[in-house]
Specification:
By secondary structure, the chain is an alpha/beta fold. The N terminus is likely disordered.
């Protein structure tokens, strides 16, 4: 009887497969079926090896070839976070693996043509599961030539405009999908407090509240409201956690922070990203309090999944599972490293071999279960279905030119650049410049190059980038004579001979615009001095740039310094001598035009700093929301205050603030309060002011920061115009962790401060009393 039943079941199963082969598609290929049903159906058809393959990511063919052409050996590969190939594996080997369904995802695919080729190979596999293509799209899909490049995140955060940031992310998603990519390794939610660290430009600055708001805006822009469709991509919240505060400023170095600091400063952006529905999370390179983040079960499973409800999937960072054995020494070999990472919650390996094999061996040895693998694969497959990849994994290469760098995207890039630029100094109102009849010299290493694109951007077509020189010439038109002295683009190549030649050229001009800073472009190789893994023990402008500015100032001509950089620099010497300083960060495709429009007064600057500027490297860490005891003692011969602090930024007009008013001066601990202030444009031209609200907590058993950002609004005002600006403080925003780590509202007097920067002298205050 048992043999008969088995025989009947075999016949039924073979009949089902035969029916499918006669034209009836399997359920998982039915676009009308519910996604969870499609995932279940596909998962039931997969072999164990096909399942584990979905957890494996590799780099693209062209990237492999370029890495090999650089003659990288095994040791160089081990220490590189930018280049990869696989010794012993050829491009043909990788092609065959894709065709057999043994790879689920790719990164560093360098062209739409290559993306399409890979998807065609995937369709040859038994189950025809499409590939998920990831790319580091931090500020536009800049790694693909022809794309729109927006300002770097550090610049975007200086707009304090979450809707604009969300718009740049949504447009980035469109350009990514148009070129075959589905997954942005963005946003970077690290809170940056150390200017030595080269990745500051990828972040949204030093403040947890602002980083959180900007990060959520990027996630919603990339993923859309429903996280479904062919116009969205999935986002990746990174890096979990606190890699931005390494003990020595070096990427990958340990971080040692209390649970209170983690809860107050570093966790909130990730908690908010989970609430916003982020699809993927990437652990940090570093260890935190002695536990390597890539094997940290508390972070990946207990905190994000169980406490916060994260239901997406984890992707490792570049070769960081390998580092568990090779660097952190928390695993004896790669097999144990894979085991510890997967056990902690890891779902996908970036990148390459030596991941599938250990998993298969561990399952065969009953060390891991197939059910644990099913958890990861289910999450990955769900994303592929939500993105519509099973219906159409390809891009129309003929339509790419009409979908990249569109007029609308160009306009957004220009608007973002205008709003990201911060005017730091303007002695005697030299700005805006009056171009009529003037002779203007533009010079400096970043005056006429693509350094303004920043990290995570390839070189773009020259017609797609407006340099500072080009922007000044365009805006000045025939009103001024704009001259250029070429110091060379390579900052290390700036010599005293070149400086003297620049000085001679300056003497015949009325105004000098010196464009200096950093260069984070990956193609610059030895000339690169900012970006990922470009950490410094000195944050002065590199090379002889200080000397260049000082010698130009000695001519007696007014010198306007324009900074193109990805992190705060120590510009104390420059600040003393330059007539004006503009912090442009890395302003993207239209940076030169935006800078010129601000120089000329066509645009009134409105950007405010999202990160403080140390006077020197010795002040690090420096941030506005410090504890009361941090500056009880002073440095011997220098100020303890930063040169420029969080929220700083000048305008060509001026603003005044009334005393803030509360709708209730006394509330219970379960109530909120509305804060209202009147802002007046007291100058003679229209402008935008970023109104900032800060909070100081009551006296308690726990030391609190001197102030914490709890709201911001941008208000547009004509000359002489007044407007009321209101903020609502909720019980959540009034809450903090007590001595027992309970998150609650303290009773007592809260000081609420409203104004144009975080400086005490720029803030008006009112007291709120909270009772039981």
């Amino acid at each position: 009887m048992r043999i008969v039943v088995i025989f009947i079941l075999v016949l039924l199963a073979s009949g089902l497969r035969a029916g499918e082969s006669r034209g009836k598609s399997p359920l998982y290929l039915d676009p009308k079926a519910k996604i969870e049903v499609r995932v279940d159906d596909l998962l039931s058809r997969m072999t164990l090896k096909e399942k584990v393959a979905q957890m494996c990511q590799y780099v693209g063919f062209q990237h492999m070839r370029e890495a090999e052409e650089r003659r990288m050996n095994s040791q160089l590969l081990k220490n590189s976070d930018a280049w990869a190939f696989y010794p012993g594996l050829t491009v043909k080997n990788i092609e065959d693996m894709v065709s057999r369904g043994e790879i689920g995802s790719f990164l560093h695919v360098l062209s739409p043509e290559e993306a399409n080729k890979l998807q065609h190979l995937a369709l040859k596999s038994r189950l025809k599961i499409p590939l998920l293509m990831g790319i580091d799209a931090l500020h536009g899909n800049g790694m693909i030539p022809g794309s729109t490049v927006y300002p770097s995140p550090i610049g975007l955060s200086c707009t304090w405009d979450t809707m604009l940031v969300r718009k740049t992310a949504a447009q980035t998603a469109l350009e990514m999908r148009s070129t075959g990519f589905h997954w942005a390794f963005s946003p970077n939610l690290d809170v940056a407090r150390d200017a030595r660290w080269g990745r500051v430009g990828e972040t949204f600055g030093e403040d947890t509240y602002l980083v959180t708001a900007m990060g959520v805006a990027v996630i919603k822009g990339l993923q859309g409201e429903n996280q479904v469709g062919d116009k969205q991509v999935i986002a990746c919240a990174k890096h979990l956690v606190a890699g931005s505060e390494p003990i020595n400023g070096l990427n990958v170095a340990p971080s040692d922070l209390s649970e209170r600091t983690l809860r107050d400063v570093y966790y909130p952006p990730f908690k908010a990203s989970v609430a916003a529905g982020v699809c993927t999370v990437m652990p940090a390179h570093n260890e935190i309090n002695g536990i390597a983040c890539h094997a940290n079960r508390y972070l990946m499973t207990d905190l994000l999944r169980k406490e916060w409800g994260f239901n997406g999937f984890y992707i490792s960072d570049f070769k960081d599972i390998e580092r568990l054995a090779e660097v952190h020494r928390v695993a004896v070999d790669q097999s144990e490293a894979v085991y510890k990472s997967v056990l902690a919650g890891m779902d996908m390996h970036m990148h390459g071999p030596q991941f599938m094999e250990p998993i298969l061996e561990m399952i065969a040895g009953n060390k891991l279960t197939e059910e644990r693998i099913d958890e990861s694969v289910r999450r990955i497959l769900e994303v592929k279905f939500r993105l519509g990849l099973f219906e159409n994994p390809f891009v129309d290469e003929k339509k790419i030119p009409e979908r990249l760098f569109t007029k609308e995207h160009q306009q957004t890039a220009l608007e973002a650049a205008r709003k990201s630029i911060v005017l730091l100094k303007n002695s005697r109102g030299i700005l805006p410049l009056k171009f009529m009849g003037k002779r203007i010299l533009v010079t400096g290493p970043n005056a006429n190059n693509q350094a303004m694109l920043g990290d995570w951007s390839a070189l773009q077509p020259v017609d797609n980038v407006v340099t500072v020189l080009q922007g000044v010439r365009k805006v000045a038109g025939k009103d001024a004579e704009v001259n250029f002295f070429d110091t060379g683009d390579a900052i290390p190549g700036l010599s005293r001979e070149i400086i003297q030649s620049a000085v001679e050229a300056a003497r015949n001009n009325d105004v000098i615009i010196a464009v200096i800073g950093e260069n984070a472009l990956r193609c610059e190789s030895v000339n690169r001095n900012s970006g990922e893994n470009i950490d410094r023990d000195d944050i002065n402008p590199a090379g002889l740039q200080n000397e260049l500015v000082e010698e130009l100032c000695k001519t007696g001509k007014p010198v306007v310094v324009v900074l193109i950089n990805g992190r705060p620099l120590s510009i104390t010497r420059i600040q003393k001598q330059a007539a004006a300083i503009i912090e442009a960060w890395e302003p993207g495709s239209y940076g030169g035009q935006a800078i010129a429009e601000i120089l000329s007064g066509k645009v009134n600057p409105s950007g405010k700093l999202s990160i403080s500027f140390p006077r020197s490297v010795g002040q690090i860490p420096v941030f506005y929301n410090h504890k009361p005891s941090q500056y009880v003692r002073k440095y011997l011969r220098t100020s303890s205050e930063p040169l420029y602090t969080f929220g700083d930024g000048l305008s060509y007009t001026s603003y005044s603030y009334s005393e803030p008013v509360l709708d209730k001066s006394y509330i219970g601990s379960d109530e909120g309060v509305t804060v209202t202030v009147e802002v007046t444009n007291t100058g003679d031209r229209e402008g935008e002011e970023i109104v900032q609200m800060y909070l100081r907590y009551p006296v308690s058993d726990v030391t609190r920061a001197v102030k914490e950002l709890r709201g911001f609004r941008t208000v547009s005002l004509k000359a002489g115009e007044k407007k009321q600006v209101s903020f609502v403080l909720t019980p959540e925003e009034l809450s903090s962790y007590d001595a027992e780590m309970n998150f609650k509202v303290d009773t007592g007097e809260f000081m609420i401060m409203v104004g144009g920067s975080s400086r005490d002298e720029d803030l008006k205050t009112v007291v709120l009393t909270v009772g039981e």
